[in-house]
Every structure is written in structure tokens, then in C-alpha cells.
Amino acid sequence: MRGRRLRRIVVPLLVVTSLLALRPAACAAVYFTEAEHLLLLGGASTAYATNLSRALGGRSVYLRGSRLAWRVDLPKGSYWLWVRARSGWEEDRTFAWSPQVRYSAAVDGREAALSPRLDTLVYESDGHNFVWASAGPLELEQGRHEVQVGCAWEWAHLDALLLTDDAAFDPAQAEGLASARPVISSWIAWPTNPYADVSPLDRPPDQLPAAMTATVPVGGTAILAAGFHTLPGSQLSTHLLLSMSELRDADGNTIPAAACRLYELQYCRTRGGQVAADPLTPLNTLGALTVPPAETAYLWAILSARGVRPGVYEGALSASSQFAYEDDRRSISIKITVAEPSLPETSGLSIFNWWGYSDSPHEWWEAQLAGGTNVFKAIVQHHIGFRFDEQGNLVGELDFTRLDRVAGYVKRADGLLLLEWYLHAPQFAGLTSRASAGAKPLEPFSPAWEKAFRTLVTAIRDHLLATGLDYDHFAEYTYDENIGPDFIRAGKIIRDLDPKLRIFSDRTATLEEYKAAAPYIDIWCPHFGGLSSQAADGRLEFMRSTGKPIWAYDEGMDQRLRSAYGNYRLRFWTVWEYGLQGCTYWKYSGDDVGMVYDPLLPDPRPVTSRRWEAWKKGLEDYRCLQALRARGTDPAALEAAVGEVLSRPGDVALADDVLGRLLQGGKTQ
């Protein structure tokens, strides 16, 4: 047949919507559906995998006092209804429907008498035999119509239904319908882009991609994704068992299955009450995934090529239904190209996510270190126990226990400890700590306050230097997003105490404000959103003229709704474009916006997310660009690549495509 096309009909929940229309040479229309995709009306039903070789789709539906309803949109015309159903026992091989017809059909509530087509009888056993029966002509107006089929016979089961406007239609033609879609069954699997906007209500695409593919540098990470959809009309959720095969290249080198981690994409509420597709929970030890009827579940596969030789590696992600016969399975092909050069071990960037909770489980710190974070903060009033009297005199000893834990991770990362004072916030400005119960807050910048502030700054400096952190590994973070008069006043005190102490600022401001505060800023950190305007009006050039490192940051209360690709992964491409020294984001966890989630189960590990994995992938992209530059890739080609990717932030496949071309020696667009 020629001119096949898929027709989609929007209908109420739990009603089948997937139909197949064919236009053969005679220009007849054929509307086809499998029985297991239909709405069950009353009674009981069981869909099962049949071993009848010629059964369409390999499944049929038992009916026990129930009926199946098919709702379909049609043009006005004369139609013939065809039903494929079990004929009966061996003695019924002559098809003893007449004069007693076991199956009944109705169209829009009007009975349609079925007549068997004996030459279509297929008999393999008493339990596996089918025959086509038809009714018509049926005069139907344009619009939606409901076809119901049932049977009073206890052992009835249905396989398929179709409507055609061709009076001479040969049901033998229907035998090819099962192969017209890539998969005709109760569930469908297909590769998808991990950064695409998704929903549980997504339907499979008309054209299913052939395979999961990725090109990564040696030591890199491939992030792959797949969708799994239970077709409308299914009576139960689909319960899948998923597994990753070993990947092998032509020389016999392998990427073991253990190098791949599988996650299910989950949904969460945002601060505004909206729903975001973001958390990624590891599949349980069985690799089980449940997909409700008419819904789609998404899987992430994160595959490490660390220690893998260059080559083209092929394998598959397999899925099989837990509650079906062995033939109810799908495989999605995987093709990973691992190409030189190798990633450098570090990027040289300062990576900060406003996280440094000393009482968090060790696993959370390890996740940060593994993700490349090398800058941690310690809120002075939380991480140091102190108490001052009303004259600013220290009472008792300072307790550095919590601070030392954070400092230990900073040493491991060879990074930076930001001492966050939060002097703009009333609860912190008075220099009272967790050990100051009952103490009266000091008036900011009063003589007593300045005395206490000098005491703390000096004591913290001396303690950190004594424990092995030099001046390059800690800095004062006095005010958040503020470089006004009080920021300058505190800066003058710090400069007077010790000119070698560095001061961090995360403020986007006017050129005049920058110039006034510049003597008291050693690390600039403007907002990502203002970089282009600051590059155009000279502010970025002024920051560069100070010779101090420039980072950039992003924040916001709607982060869970933001694109993991555009707002997280591409931040590192922006850092490359502007030649910055740090990439930061508020924040790693907490406040209903963080990139990771607290587990509900007693598991000390954070629950990762699309955004956190995209952030880590962006850092890997940056290291890949470094490796390509070190390999001798034309600098103009690199700049063109970065410009191309940043010019189309909505094209979620572009970064992988561009890096793939560069890794394999090609050119960007």
C-alpha cells in the first residue's frame, strides 16, 4: 500500500487516540486499531501476549462480560466495520457463527450485524485462532463515532478492529498494518534529548529516532535519555525492567555496563506552585520503571568514558515488561564515539554554588567535590562560636570546630573558603553567633562593633593560616549583592588590619559604584545576565583593568522551571566567551530552588537533578574546549563554535553537535 499516514484523534482520558489511516491504490481509507488500545466498558478484561504468529501486534484481549469501545473521527461516507476475533474451539473451524452470532457490534448505539469471512480463519490451537468478520455498509456523518464490540461467550477475545470506505476491502491487506508503526503494542520506547521540555502527558513522536548517540572526549561523560510510553486504553501500568549492555568497539575494547548510571526523571513543585521536570532518582537495584496508562516516563543514562580508549562503542539499553511473555521487550541502540583529546583533570576555574553546611552528611560534600566545586562558604556567625560583651570584648574562647570541617574540604579541592558575614542582614549585622544566647547585638560600626569585628577578622585569619590555608585560599565576603557605603566602610577596616586579606563582591552595579568600591574588591562576581551590557559600556573592561579575577553568577526563585541546558550547561560557555575566571550559581541546595534535593528515604546522598547534571556537563564542556585548544585546534574555530552555541540557547542538541564535530576534526557551522 502507498501513502500511509498516522492520524491522531484527541479524545477523553483512557480512550484510545492512536489510529492508522492508509490510502491504497484505490484511494480507500482504512482506520485501524489494536484491541488492547481500546476503552473497556464493564466486566473484566485481560490483555495477553499471544503466540499466534499472524496475530496483529502479537497481543489480544480476553473479554469476560465486557465490551471494548473505539472512538474515532471520520469523514462523512459509507463504511464497513471489520473485527478480528477468536473463532472458537476445534469443532468451530467451519466457523459456526451462523445462525448463532457470538460477537456483537454497535456503531453509535445502533446494532451492526457481523458476518464471518471464512477464508481468513487462522487456526493453531483451541486457544489461538482468529477470523475476520464484517458489518456494513454503515452510513456515517462527519465527526466522532463510537464502535462497541462485545461477546456473551466466556472465552472470547479480540485482536483488532478497522473501518474502511472500500466495499471491496480485502482483510488480508490488514496483515501488514502491524508493521506500519515502529512498535505496535501496549508500550513504546524511543531515544530523546535529555534537555528537552517534557511532561508525563507527552505522546511518542511520529518518527522515532533510531539510536542514542554521543561523541565525547577521552575521560568525558555521555548523557543519554529515553522515553517510555504506555499506550492509551491499556488496562494496567507498564512495569519495565531496564538494563544496560556492555558497549564494545571494533577492536574488542569495552565500556562496562557498570560505567553507566540509570535515573528516572521525576517532577517537583516550584516555589510558585508550578510543576517542573527536574529531580533524577536512581533506578532501584532491579532497574524497574513504572509507566501509567497514557503517560510517558523518561530515563536518563549517564555514561562515563573515564579510562576508555578512543573508538566507536556500540551496545543497547534493553527494557522488558515484568508481567508479559519474553517477547515483550524493546532495545534502544547506543553508539558512543570516544575521541581524542583527553580532558584535563581540572579547569582552573573557581566553581561556587553558595553551599557550605558543616553539619551536612559527608556524601553531600563528596558530591560537590566530584562535581568540580572548589569554593565553599562558611557563614561566620554559624560556623564560629563566639560571644562579645557590650564593649566589644571577647568573652571566652572562639570555637572553630565547624569552620575547620569546611576548611578541610577547601584544602581537598585546593580551592577557596569564602567567609560570609552577611552584614547587610539584621540577624547577622550585630555580630552574635550560635554561642551568643542572651547577648545583646552590637550596633553596626559603633566602636564596640568595630572592636569585635577586628577581633574576629584577625582571629579567623590567624587560625586559618595556622591550619595550612594561605591568603590565596580564603577571602572575606562581607555583604551580599551590596557595594554601597557600608561595604566600603567594612573594606577599609579589613584593609587597615591586613592588606593581604582579599574581599569578594557579587554585585552588578554602575561604573561609578564600581570605581568607588574597587580598592576594596579582590574578586569581582557580576550577574551573568548583565555581562553583555557591561562588555558594551566599559564596565567589564574596568573590572579587567584592576587585574583582579572576574567570576559571574546567576540566581532566581524560578530556577526549577529554567532550562537545564540554557541556564546551567551554557553558563560555562559564557565564561569561556568572556574570558572569566569563575562560574557560580545560587544555589546547590535549599530554599525550594536548589539544584539537588533532600532524599525522603534514609539515604545520606543528595538526589541529583537535570540542572545539577547539566551544570557538571557544562564544566566538562569547558575542559573539552581547553583540551581542543591545547591540541592545536584553530582558535578561530573554537571561538566560532562558542559563538554558534551561545547564539541559539534554545537548541538543546547544539552543544553536543558542535563539540562532536570539533572532536572529530570537523568545522562548526
Terminal Cα span: 40 Å
SS content category: alpha+beta
Measured on Cα atoms, how large is the radius of gyration? 33 Å
Strand content: 25-35%
Q: How would you describe this structure to a colleague?
A:
This protein has 14 helices and 35 strands. The two termini are 40 Å apart.
Observed structural traits:
single chain, 669 residues, alpha+beta, nine-stranded antiparallel beta sheet, six-stranded antiparallel beta sheet
Structural topology:
Elements: E1 2-8, E2 18-23, E3 30-34, E4 39-41, E5 44-49, E6 59-64, E7 67-74, E8 77-85, E9 103-107, E10 110-111, E11 115-125, E12 128-140, E13 143-151, E14 157-164, E15 187-192, E16 211-218, E17 221-230, E18 238-244, E19 247-248, E20 254-255, E21 260-269, E22 275-282, E23 288-291, E24 296-304, E25 311-321, E26 329-342, E27 350-352, H1 362-370, E28 375-379, H2 380-383, H3 401-413, E29 416-420, H4 426-429, H5 447-466, E30 474-477, H6 485-497, E31 504-505, H7 511-517, E32 523-524, H8 531-537, H9 539-545, E33 551-552, H10 564-569, H11 571-578, E34 582-584, E35 608-609, H12 610-631, H13 635-647, H14 654-663
Parallel strand pairs: 16-26, 27-34, 28-29, 29-30, 31-32, 33-34
Antiparallel strand pairs: 1-2, 2-3, 3-14, 4-7, 5-6, 6-14, 7-13, 8-12, 8-14, 9-10, 9-13, 11-12, 15-17, 17-24, 18-23, 18-25, 19-20, 21-22, 21-24, 22-35, 25-26
Helix pairs in contact: 11-12, 11-13, 12-14, 13-14
